[in-house]
# Entry
Amino acid sequence: MATHEILLLGDGSHLFRTIAWVLEYKGYKVRAAASPEAALEALVKKNYDLVIAKLNMGELDGIEVLKRAKRLNPEVKVMVVSGNHEVTFPREAYQIEVDDYLLMPVSPTELWRRVSHCLESLDIVDLVPATSLAAQTATAVNARALDRLMMIFHDLRGSMVSTAASMKLLVRGTFGEVGGAALEKLQEVSGNMDRLICFTEEVMAKAFSCAGDQEMEKEMLDLRHDVVAPVLEELGVELRNHRINLDNRLERRPAAVIPVKGSKLWLKSVFRNLINNAIKHGGAGCTIVIDWQKQGTNCRLNVHNTGKLVPEEYRSMLFSNFAKKMRRAQGSGEGMGLGLYLSRDIVSRHGGDLRYEPRQDGSNFVVTLPHG
# Structure
């Protein structure tokens, strides 16, 4: 591991001193600043590999330090750490480019793991020489494979989450009493499924961090029959279990196809993610409306649910890869937080757009794609 230099901004508390001690013990060079003024003075004099700011609710000076650090050195890594036992960050902390969020208390091992993960890319840059044309080609091939695996894992995770939920209902006796050895085995399988979901999330996060811009193999598709219909059939049980009222208005359209040029696998993943989100956030008994309109040379696919609106202050972060961390900081661990981010990226590579539209009767997600 290269010897990295870290600037630590805190408040001089016992927690602050412990963080500094752990990082120094692991071999990092740590400059501790107990005030924003001291941190800014250090940043002006020297470039650091990582800036860690301990933030408390209502205190925004640390955020200003992180913004200044990014302006002075766009390559610097930044991490925010909560106060001890605080379960969230100031809202402004989610509106800047941050490499990691860490809620305290945390074990020294986890702190070191998260810091070393932030600095991994710097280690790679130090060790890898200028790439040849052959190496660049291999990197592109590997990136395409990672991107496909990432979406496959995302879809697998959706099925595993559904299965895990069903297992928990069985354990609780929702469908009838289960006891004895059968209950113990069911609890064991349920625990294994939860661990598998966590593993899948970790793999996806790593794959996502490695994936770059790739070209997609595209073909002529009928949006209705090749994308929408198979996903709705696949999620039929989920829709029924949640008592969803499905209004698929594409079925009432004339028999002519809705032509788009794209990847069936990737577009199905986008639509599957939107429907899963509509089920989860619309809630049991909600209505999901699927509709389509032609807009010049584009087609517009709407996925609307009658659930609660996304709070206005979080809408700008809906398609951010920090959405997962935002939900965890609020105490809600559900959802990957990568689904919408990846979906928008996929639609963008098809020459289209994915956006959120709040309505009086619920939330509407709009996929715009060029006609094939």
User: Anything to note?
Assistant: The radius of gyration is 24 Å. The chain has three domains: 5-127, 133-210, 219-370. Confidence is low (pLDDT under 50) at residues 125-131, 323-337.
